[in-house]
Design brief:
Elements: H1 7-11, E1 26-30, H2 40-49, E2 55-59, E3 63-66, E4 72-76, E5 84-93, E6 96-109, E7 113-119, E8 122-133, E9 139-147, E10 152-157, E11 162-166, E12 169-173, E13 178-180, E14 184-187, E15 211-214, E16 219-223, E17 236-239, E18 252-255, E19 258-267, E20 275-278, E21 281-290, E22 307-310, E23 313-319, E24 322-324, E25 331-345, E26 348-353, E27 369-374, E28 380-391, E29 396-401, E30 413-417, E31 422-427, E32 430-432, E33 439-441, E34 447-450, E35 453-455, E36 461-463, E37 472-473, E38 479-482, E39 485-487, E40 500-502, E41 517-523, E42 526-529, E43 535-538, E44 540-546, E45 549-552, E46 566-569, E47 572-577, E48 580-582, E49 589-592, E50 595-599
Parallel strand pairs: 1-2, 2-6, 3-6, 5-7, 6-8, 7-18, 8-19, 18-20, 19-21, 20-22, 21-23, 22-25, 23-31, 24-32, 25-33, 31-34, 32-35, 33-36, 34-38, 35-39, 36-40, 38-41, 39-42, 40-43, 41-44, 42-45, 43-46, 44-47, 45-48, 46-49, 47-50
Antiparallel strand pairs: 4-5, 9-10, 9-17, 10-16, 11-12, 12-13, 14-17, 15-16, 25-26, 25-30, 25-37, 26-29, 27-28, 27-30, 28-29
Organism: Gaetbulibacter aquiaggeris
Signal peptide: 1-20
Pfam family, one: Beta-barrel_GLAA-B_I
């Protein structure tokens, strides 16, 4: 296989029309001549030789291979992923008006290379292609035997995985990478969803390594298991490697760009998030799917989120997309909290990141408005406009403001950037068979979630806010969730998972200091679920729950049977009306420490009286 091409050879693969940047866009066409050709250098030469080129790049329908040897390389700091030196194939930097049309082609990437880098670019459209890798970034196998007493299980490892065993430790690998075992999950082979109560089968690799013993015919016996239960025979065991080492190969890295369109794309696999966008204005996804390839016997698509948006602005639109079998959320839209270390002088503060996977993030720039919040109750204590920001290292910054910083003596302070907050629309999408939640939403701009189907392992819509662990900001102010179907969520068993879960992380003794979220409407949804908890709401000013149909299913035994269907704590301006419940018992509404409540007494299937049954599992610190 010849993987190296001089530039003169590159021209043989182009058909182009002469043009100038002012009145025409150049048309460039790639075509497969040999199924084993490496197209990496062709793409590199095209994108690097003429930095001002505006063009449409067409790939005639076929299968294209990309290898790392000739890939573009740079050090990147990608939030919620692992920083480091990475290789990219389509490196679109400082560009305008670029369209890449795959015409239904499949791009196969070999080794540790990221397909797309879009940075400091405007009007970029990518469409009509499929993304696949030569070897998966997770280890998968079918459990063929187990022993609960000895805490062992035998795994027949999937034929797509390369692996070796050294000193009783299994390592799996690809073209140019190798990793040991770490974070794991058990899936049901029939449903292709996480196994019921899958938390029972999670091995804590921080405590000890799984010991591996080769048997025969790709069968490995694992021992030294510290999970509560051994995986069931017939289930599928997946492991993506240790936390802090397994989020390196995203599908699309979008950074400091504007007007990005991704249409009719299938991401069959990624070794981290399929799409991560940071500090980007206006992103549109239409039929951007993170799914298993049709006919594949594998169980995992992306090994982290399908999509993730950090401190973006403008409009994020997600329409007609499918997000299935990834190992984290379908989307997470949020800002970032930095911790205030020190007030250096009247206009300058020292700050640092709270989570190691945020380090190096481009937190703010001159002219941005930042909000200071008290980390104990998440309440604002003032704002300031950035005059300058200086990075000392990836974790520590100094920020100078135009005017004096607010007075916050004796307060534990975090800072968020409220200039960079996007609106969000998620419509006509399907989310299912994935670990974690469907949607995480933390933006103060308008949000509409409409006409979707959700069937995730954990919560349906989670609206959080946290300045002490993940450090993801901020409060919502206008969210509408309507006309969606939620089916059998919350099967993971870690902790109760609500269909709508509004759970800013605020200690109990600080919850009366104010309300974090505002104006949330949950209406005309259909919920089919086996566990009771439908809505958990903490610290909301303005919550409407109306005209929802809730149907108890018998998919599996209830996990948290002692909870109420609606659990409202420290909220105000609440209206609950027109909801129906169909189940073995009447549904209950628990209200504690709430103000200004209107609850219709004649809701079908509900108790007529309000009770006090606060969730004893959630954040009772």
């Amino acid at each position: 296989m010849n993987k190296f091409f001089p530039l003169i050879g590159l021209l043989l693969f182009f058909s182009s029309s002469c043009s100038t940047q002012t009145n025409k866009t150049k048309q460039i066409v790639f075509e497969v001549s040999n199924n084993d050709d490496d197209f990496t250098s062709k793409v590199f030469d095209l994108l690097q030789n003429d930095k001002k080129l505006e063009c449409t790049i067409e790939f005639k329908t076929g299968t294209y291979h990309f290898y790392p040897e000739m890939a573009y390389e740079k050090y990147v700091k990608i939030s919620n992923n692992d920083n480091g030196l990475r290789k990219f194939v389509f490196a679109i930097e400082g560009r305008r008006n670029i369209t890449i049309n795959g015409n239904g082609s499949t791009f196969i990437f070999h080794g540790s290379i990221i397909p797309f880098l879009i940075e400091n670019s405007t009007n970029i459209k990518i469409e009509n292609l499929n993304i696949e890798y030569d070897f998966p970034f997770d280890l998968e196998g079918i459990v063929v035997a187990n022993n609960q007493e000895e805490k062992t299980f035998d795994l027949k490892i999937h034929e797509d995985n390369k692996y070796k065993i050294k000193d009783d430790i299994l390592y799996f690998s690809g073209y140019d990478w190798e990793i040991g075992l770490g974070e794991n999950i058990v899936y049901n082979a029939t449903t292709k969803s996480p196994e019921y109560f899958t938390s029972h089968y999670e091995h804590n690799f921080h405590e000890n390594f799984l010991k591996a013993q080769p048997l025969d015919d790709r069968i490995v016996r694992f021992s030294n298991l510290n999970a509560a239960k051994v995986p069931p025979v017939g289930s599928i065991y997946s492991d993506k490697g240790p936390h802090g080492e397994n989020r390196k190969i995203v599908g699309f890295r979008v950074y400091k760009s504007k007007h990005i369109e991704l249409n009719n794309i299938n991401v069959y696999h990624a070794g981290a998030m399929a799409l991560i966008a940071e500090k980007t204005e206006t992103v549109s996804l239409n039929k951007f799917n993170v799914i298993l390839k049709e006919g594949s016997s594998r169980i995992i698509s992306a090994t982290a989120d399908a999509t993730h948006f950090i401190n973006c602005k403008g409009a994020i639109t997600i329409d007609n997309c499918r997000f299935e079998n990834m190992l984290d959320d379908a989307t997470n839209v949020h800002g970032t909290y930095m911790i205030n270390n020190e007030v250096i002088d009247s206009v300058t503060v020292a700050v640092r990141f709270g989570h190691f996977q945020q380090q190096g993030f481009d937190f703010a720039e001159k002219g941005d408005t930042l909000r200071f919040i008290d980390r104990t109750n998440l309440m604002p204590v003032g704002t300031g406009v950035v005059k300058s920001i200086d990075m000392i290292n990836e974790n520590n910054y100094t920020i100078t403001f135009e005017e004096r910083v607010p007075e916050f003596s004796n307060k534990n302070i975090a800072i968020e950037n409220i200039t960079w907050m996007p609106s969000l629309e998620v419509k006509n999408c399907t989310v299912k068979q994935n670990r974690a939640r469907s949607l995480l939403i933390s933006t103060s701009k308008s949000v509409l979630v409409e006409n979707n189907y959700f069937a995730s392992m954990m919560a349906g819509i989670r609206i959080c806010g946290d300045a002490n662990y993940w450090f993801e900001s901020g409060p919502v102010s206008n969210v509408i969730v309507r006309g969606n179907t939620f089916e059998n969520l919350g099967i993971g068993g870690h902790a109760p998972q609500a269909i709508l879960q509004i759970d800013p992380i605020i200690g109990k003794k600080y919850r009366e200091d104010g309300y974090y979220h505002k104006n949330i409407v949950f209406e005309n949804n259909i919920i089919k679920t086996f566990d009771p908890l439908i809505i958990y709401a903490l610290s909301v000013d303005g919550l409407i729950i109306r005209n929802n149909t809730i149907i108890q299913t018998k998919l599996c035994p209830q996990i948290f049977s002692d909870l109420s269907q609606f659990d409202l704590q420290n909220c105000t301006n609440i209206k609950i009306e027109g909801n129906t419940y169909k189940g073995d018992n009447e549904a209950s509404i628990s209200v504690i420490n709430c103000q200004k409540i209107e609850i219709e007494s004649e809701q079908e299937g509900f108790l007529k009286s309000i009770i006090q049954n606060p969730n004893k599992y959630f954040y009772q610190n």
